[in-house]
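S.,

Sequence below, as promised.
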Amino acid sequence: MNKIPTRLNKEPLIEAIWQAQFEPKDGLPVGDLLPGILYSALKVDHPNLQLHRLPTADIPAPVAQIDPNLRFSAKYRMEEPGSPFLFQVGDRIVTMNCRKPYAGWSAFKERMLKLINVIESSGLVPTPRRHSLRYIDLLCLDQAPSLKALQVNFQIGQWNLENRPIQMRVEIPDGDCNHVIQIATPAEANLPEGKLQGSVIDLETFSNSQPDSWQDVRAQIDQIHDRSKAVFYQQLLTADAIALMEPEY
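The prediction came back faster than expected:
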């Protein structure tokens, strides 16, 4: 089994996302009230923070409530020019994204806990329903479409699909956690260094236990992070792929 590195010098991560889903308190329009509260609090660390209203904010609430594709959509986005961090808010969702370059787990977790404190103190979201960590990586070790860097085998009858274009999604139970793994190759991403093509590995991890409070969310964060890392390095990547990314232990 692969040893888990502390960091990779050739980091494939292009975005990390923490997401919390909830039901609005007493039918309050959380997606319209919470952005102002978060904006004021986040400006302490992000003085040039900008608030953007998204097109989904114009969709009537009854329509968004019924349509499962809109139910957890964001209505506002907050970001600071030059910062990798981005925050999004909807009537039933809050996300914190860290785009490339990844700030590292310590910095990501620190900002996440600050965000949770603001949400909790607002009184608008007393109980979260679900929260997850999602990591999106772009592997460019081999020319896409290629799954050589992954511990996966795809075959239909006599056809080996190793070097064929693929899009797949699978949910895997893992004790008290669940993982949603999506693989797409070839895939293209617009990054600070330019447009790159490779294979996208999208890994989302969440606890099986629904949190009863924001304190439960805080208590589960490290566990979810550790389980996600274990899946990525020990179940998805091959030892050769890890070595090519120049790991540090």
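The helical segments are 30-42, 61-66, 105-122, 214-236, 239-244.

Coffee later?
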